[in-house]
Amino acid sequence: MPFQAISIKKIVNGILERDYVLPAIQRHFVWKPDQIINLFDSILRGYPIGSFLFWRIKTEHVNDFQYYDFITDFNVKDNSNDKIVPSGEKEITAVLDGQQRLTALLIGLRGSYTYKTPYLRQDHPQAYQKRELYLNLAKPKEDESHGLAFLTEKEAKEGRREGKLWYKIGRLLTEEPSEFMLSEEGDSLPLEVKKTAFRRITEFSQCLNLDIINYYVEEEQDIDKVLSIFIRVNSGGTVLSYSDLLLSTATALWTEYDAREEIENITHEFASYKAGFKISSDFVMKACLTLSDLDVKFIVKNFNRVNMQKIEAEWEKIKDAILCTMRFAIGYGYNQDTISSYNALLPIAYYIKSKDIAEKFDHAAKYKKSREDAITWLRRALLMKVFGGSSDTVISRYRDVLSKSQSENFPLKEIESSFKDIAITSQDIDEIFEDTRYDREAFYVLHEIFGREYNTDVDMDHLYPKSLFTQRNMRTWGFTTRESQEEVQDLVNSLANLRLAGHGENIEKSAMKFEAWVQGLSKVQREALLIPAMKDYGPENFVEFCKKRTVLMKDRLKRNLTVQSRSNKNLKKH
Fold it and tell me: pTM here?
């Protein structure tokens, strides 16, 4: 069948009538306001906007598939499409390629875009405002993208003060250009402005009525063949990622679950935790491949019916293992800001699923040793950036060790004997203390030194408050040279001046001077925190404190880790 064409006005009205729908294999709308504006600007300039691929589904097959409605009023805080159930009494057209552009047209002409106002706090009442697309009927400047902008109604009215005449472009779907000119608003305009306004409205109206949407219709009714087409047309670019394709395929081929809803639910659950984990569908789909013992690569050949059915059959166990792993990580104080790679959690999730212990692993006494070994491995993996490079290869190698292990416990010893990437030398430790400052890597080191389970939020706490070390105070305490002041300011954020503390502990300490706080600690508490013995803990002795505590911290870190000589570590690599 050759390419056909239809006008923007007709296709937008068709979407509103649900003659055009989104198949479940499509992903969410992801365009930004500027992208929508650029699309309309291209249309006004007469530029081509690409072709579209539609899938005509015959009446007898309409109820064989799942569909979603287009988003009309987009909100960045909730970009979910509503699921729809067609009547089954007529054919429908599903959009295989062009969803982002069509949704952009719909939002611009009949909907709105709600996004965060820059510089306002998330909880500010005006932080998220509904904006609609307007056209400046006065002569726009050269850099104004044809005078298009997303505005609130208030902003549109205030534009007149700047000589702008904002016109909501959606009006052109229901009224002719002459109607505006004959209205009180249009009739009151100065003659020259009226001429410019009429010309611009007419030009825009003509664009909406021209047949510029070029599309091809696929008539195939076999979902496997349609998926093949969908993957082919979407895998060539970078806009739709391979994880999106994998999720789309799962959505189309799962029979017991709605894959799209399941993945959305689990990512929303992660986000609701206090730890604020921002888990993407990429991670969940990678977990599905990993925990199902499939090839972990996001490549087209992995998007097949057999693999998707295997993932669906194991979905409940996969989901439970992921959730248990997250609870486990939270229990040791990890959150969105302290995990540099979520892929580092996959070996732990694989262990949990393979042993079928998701209901108990994160809390039962029976698994205390496994939890300790798993968190030891996680700390070292994050500290040594094990998952910073070719993570697919790393994930597969770790999974191989875990799958072959006969131990009921987390196989830390087997991992240590198989991998060099978590081994650490005395030189590594020296470099860590030299380079690490107040950031997520500091969290990993402190966790390895002072590691314990936490039942609350965990803070990295400055022992000597950072705010103390103003230039004036430093001079008072004897740090009079530029070099000595720079040394102090560097040490303030060093590992020697940091500890891990429960949120409540941190607040309680913040109200006290460090000297008084130290005096209130017992001998056992001081030893646990590696507070060096000193006669005077006043800030004038801060540098001495840091040097002594660094020695104590390095010694404990060496004891806690399997410290090798540099030569032995290098030998193991060959």
Answer: 0.64
